[in-house]
Write a structure and sequence with these properties.
Order of helices and strands: HEEHEHEEEEHEE
Distance between the termini: 49 Å
Number of helices: 4
Shape: elongated
Length: about 170
């Protein structure tokens, strides 16, 4: 590590402030005439960290159980192509991946917190923490972003609001 260089910056990934979640839910519940049409969706991304490209060379020992009876002699290692849970760069890699997908879907990354995104044309707001995402908007706009994310990731979602309960 160089003198004066932050050793955590290369592995840093942001955490959203609690106030951001409160503001997102409050806006969905009290947004004037559109509050009656607002929904909130919570999505969990399955195997999120495996979707992110790893940025450095990391090798892991392949467990003997993988090979079964055909285990080669000695230890065998594999070089990771994707992030793996518990690696130093997993959360930063996932954050970069989700940012890229959200920008592709037309969202703007928050200026003050990179865990917040906003879609200017349809007014949908999003907050993400790790592999959990929260959206607030109209049923159509939330459905649209969930379909877009579903093209990239396996999601488990719950949508709450008028006419929604799944």
């Amino acid at each position: 590590t160089s003198i004066g260089r932050d050793p955590y910056s290369e592995n840093f990934s942001a955490t959203p402030p609690l106030e951001a979640l409160c503001a997102l839910l409050s806006a969905a519940a009290t947004n004037g005439a559109t509050a009656a049409q607002s929904v909130v969706a919570v999505a969990d991304v399955k195997r999120a960290y495996f979707a992110a490209e790893i940025q450095r060379d990391v090798c892991v020992r392949i467990p003997d159980e993988y090979w079964g009876q055909d285990a080669p002699p000695g230890d065998v290692v594999g070089k990771l192509r994707k992030c793996l849970y518990a690696t130093r760069d997993a959360s930063k890699g996932w954050q970069a991946k989700v940012h890229a997908v959200m920008v592709e879907l037309g969202y703007t990354i928050g200026r003050y917190s990179p865990c917040l995104t906003y879609h200017r044309s349809n007014g949908t707001s999003n907050l993400f923490h790790g592999d959990d995402l929260v959206f607030a908007g109209t049923p159509a706009s939330v459905r649209e972003v969930l379909q877009g994310l579903g093209g990239h990731f396996q999601l488990t979602t719950t949508v709450v609001g008028p006419g929604e309960s799944r």
